[in-house]
Every structure is written in C-alpha cells, then in structure tokens.
Model the fold of this input.
Amino acid sequence: MPANPKYLSHSGWHAFAKISAGIFGGYLIAAMFHMALALWLPNHRVVLITSAYSIFLVWTLCLLLPFLSKNGWKVWLIYMAVILILAVAVHYGNLYHPINPKS
Done:
C-alpha cells in the first residue's frame, strides 16, 4: 500500500534537510554528548568503552527525530543549538578536567 501523500514532504529541500540533519547532525550530537560525558564524569574509561554501543543508540534516536517534524530546517536549527551547547561543554570540560593519557 503506498504512503498517503499528505504525510510526505512537498519540497525536496525539506527532505534533504531532514535526512542530513538525522545523519550528520545526529552523529555530531551523539559523539559530542559522549565526549562531554567522558570529560565531566570521574571515570572516563567506562564512558569511552561503553560509548561504542551507546553512540549508536543515541545516533539512532537523533536519526529518527527529524522525521517527526514538518520542517527540516527547524530541526537543523535545533540540532545546531544542541551541538553548540555540547561543544562549549566539551571545551570547558577539556580546560577544567583534561583526560590525562597516563592515568
């Protein structure tokens, strides 16, 4: 049975924005979230070991969320705001709690 046309994106650019936000933005959010966790939590090794599995789970969630929205560009705006917040958290985490490779 074909999909109902009223639920499909009418613009190719909105579909592109949703797909690219899900793939690229979702991966950046998942990776930066785990980097921030590794820098701010006391035992960074546990976070880095379990991130091999949990990054995939977070990325899958972030991949599916844009398709619940009608406008893909708003999703990109929200994802960029989250990425910026996580980048600030990673930056300050690296300043105040650097991971020492010898520890």
